[in-house]
Amino acid sequence: xxxxxxxxxxxxxxxxxxxxxxxxxxxxxxxxxxxxxxxxxxxxxxxxxxxxxxxxxxxxxxxxxxxxxxxxxxxxxxxxxxxxxxxxxxxxxxxxxxxxxxxxxxxxxxxxxxxxxxxxxxxxxxxxxxxxxxxxxxxxxxxxxxxxxxxxxxxxxxxxxxxxxxxxxxxxxxxxxxxxxxxxxxxxxxxxxxxxxxxxxx
Length: 202
Prior knowledge:
The protein has 8 helices and 4 strands, in the order βαβαββαααααα. The chain is of the alpha+beta class. The chain folds into 2 domains: about 1-75, Glutaredoxin (3-Layer(aba) Sandwich), CATH 3.40.30.10; about 90-195, Up-down Bundle (Glutathione S-transferase Yfyf (Class Pi), Chain A, domain 2). Helix 1 runs parallel beside helix 3, helix 4 runs antiparallel to helix 5 (about 125-145) and helix 4 packs parallel to helix 6.
């Protein structure tokens, strides 16, 4: 059985869990919670020298990271549904959407870390504003034309759903008030993908 090192609140780990469910391989993966707060977590560092989650450990001990690579590996295990188009414009649309959504996630996580690891008098307002602007401009761009899902979601859709879910979880869902089309899009994703609700952090 494969082993997934992750944390229940990790949006990147959530991507992997949703991908595994969509591909029908979730029962082949044992999830182990790891703590990323200590300066050094030796178990995690042994599996990924960056000490980042998620990490997928295959049955032969091979380590795969980061979340994008893990999801593409899982997509290779079964033919349908294909979450990563193999080539052409569809593939690059999927990867570009995923890159945008990961950028939202990265900025949102950095805002959390700024407040978690620095005392308030050390917060850098201009740097925090820069991260928030990345989130806001990306959401505004997506609101103009939310991505179409077609017959089934792809990796870009999974990543966007996890990014929006993280904004709900760690940033109070304030994005919802000004992005009704994206709210409707996420509701549709939630309805189509039961693993989204099943993997929701608490």
